[in-house]
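Note to self: the last two entries modelled the partners one at a time, which told us nothing about the interface. This time every component goes in together.
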Amino acid sequence: MIATLQAFFQTDLGIVVLTLLEALALLVPLLIGVAYLTWFERKVMGAIQLRKGPNVVGPFGLAQPFADAIKMLFKETITPTGADRVLFTLAPMLTFGLAIVAWAVIPVNNHWGIANINVGILYLFAVSSLGVYGIIIAGWASNSKYAFLGALRSAAQMVSYEVSMGFVIVTVLVCVGSLNLNDIVLAQRHIWFAIPLFPLFVIFFISGLAETNRAPFDLAEGESEIVAGFFVEYSAMSFALFFLGEYANMILISAMTTVLFLGGWLSPVPFLPGGVLWFLLKVLLCLFVFVWVRATLPRLRYDQLMALGWKVFLPITLVYLVAVAGVLEYLGWLPNA
Amino acid sequence: MIVNLAFYFFSFILLASAVMVVTSRNPVHAVLFLILAFVNAAVLFLLAGAEFLAFILAIVYVGAVAVLFLFVVMMLDVDFAALKEGFQRYAPVGALVALVLFGELFLVVSGWSTLAGAPAARLYPTPDNLTNTAALGNLIYTSYLPLFQLSGMVLLVAMIGAIVLTHRDRKRSLHQKLSAQHARTPEQTLRLVRPELGAGVSVPASEKEAT
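The predicted structure of the combined assembly is written out below.
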């Protein structure tokens, strides 16, 4: 029985089936995680603001995400007059799909990534830079001023912060000598990159906040100025897809931070083995900081946001990259790829 | 077999979306089809084994250049009826240009010759023990370093040109000087006075300037 199964998984069809099963094994926990992240955020914000948070549906309000999902499903989907129907329905799917598709290369344990490709980090960067299209298309297709203004803001913001994010990634790559995410984690066996590259770790995390349009960079949906930004016109399930896409992106950025700086699945305690649990724990820690920041900091003004991206982060990361490369070259520590 | 099917599938989408770029009536749709064409070109690179080029194409063209392009097209209010007006009149000129271009391409391609060793070398594009990215890096930073640096200089000049063209010194713009604001102390900005009843306070001209 086992022998026939093994033989089957060697064939072309078997490999396709196996990959689909692997994807399913990753996606189901991921989607449940996205649903419960909304619950987690409301609970943590409640605790910070001395409230209870959701506590009515199910024990500790644990069934709240499902109640919300059912509510969203049964609402009416409204398409505004003058909207570009095809693009209007395509945009939320694109946003959510891209947030999910990026997970193909994330290694949650040693060689556990669905696709262990040589240029994994480039793939991640490419997919996250595509995320901006969901927002621009949604803003334009809605045929509404507020949506368009929100889309312009958020697209400008994402493009600006991507630049410094790219330089941070390049600096990490200089230390690793490989673009493979598995190798990036294994290169941190002795010391996590968060320690020698601490300023870059902070910059990466802040850029991640901006990239996901989270507070304090949530100008795209600044409700006091432009109602809800690029998704004002969306309702029911298409709105839910944007909402879930944002949370999936939060988990993705946390996972990227974990892989690049916090040693992925590696154990922080020397005598304990590494594993998926460590990875989850680190991702949860990053997500907690996401929520903590949202509950603590006021929103930035738009010119402050742009100034921070272009005048502070970009020069710092650029100089840091040259400095790190210079130091590694001087000490002869450059890894040979 | 699967790779061949995938190649034809993605090439078909690439060509179809390239046609749509030219023929769509809505300029925003045209740009979106252009982006689809870029993505499919990246996939073709991937199928050819050039993974680094594929993702760089996706990041640079799709992630950055096309976003700006889309911005511009969305902001412009182009009247396409007016643009199409002269189509009949200018069609012969366009056809002539197309014919000349096609003739040139035909001359170049028909006289095309390759080096004797090139077809064999093309079968093994990267050394066995190196990844695609490392092989490319080795070439760019050793044999082709001057050319690489030169193209970098061209980009730098283009960047400076763009800044010179768009930068205007706005004499009356309202800049916030963060350092000046942070350096202020209450003594410089605040003076507590107890005005006489009915007399009010007269502010000296020097203090009016200080704000």
